[in-house]
Design goal:
The chain has one domain. With 80 residues, the chain is of the alpha+beta class. A hairpin with a 2-residue loop joins strand 2 and strand 3. 8% of the residues are buried. The protein contains 3 helices and 3 strands, in the order E-H-H-E-E-H.
Length: 80
């Protein structure tokens, strides 16, 4: 995962900025949270990932919500 200090403190991001985009031009976008698009939307339904904000048909996420999510994931202990 990326260093959380490098992420913006406010504003909005698109899904490709969260889960990465290998086809982005001019260079690929590495994932902050390495899951598939399907896993991301299933996680939203289960309450694991934050819900998006919609601007028309465009889904966006608040950077504040993504920072909290990454903090929680980094602080979670893996199950044994």
């Amino acid at each position: 995962m990326s260093k959380i200090g490098e992420l913006p403190k406010a504003g909005y991001c698109r899904l490709g900025q969260i889960i990465g985009d290998k086809k982005a031009k001019p260079c690929p976008i590495p994932p902050l949270i390495p899951v598939s698009k399907t896993a991301w939307y299933n996680g939203i339904k289960k309450g694991i990932f934050p819900r998006p904000v919609h601007a028309g048909r465009c889904a966006m996420w608040r950077w504040e919500d993504i920072r909290k999510l990454i903090d929680g994931l980094e602080g979670a202990k893996p199950e044994t």
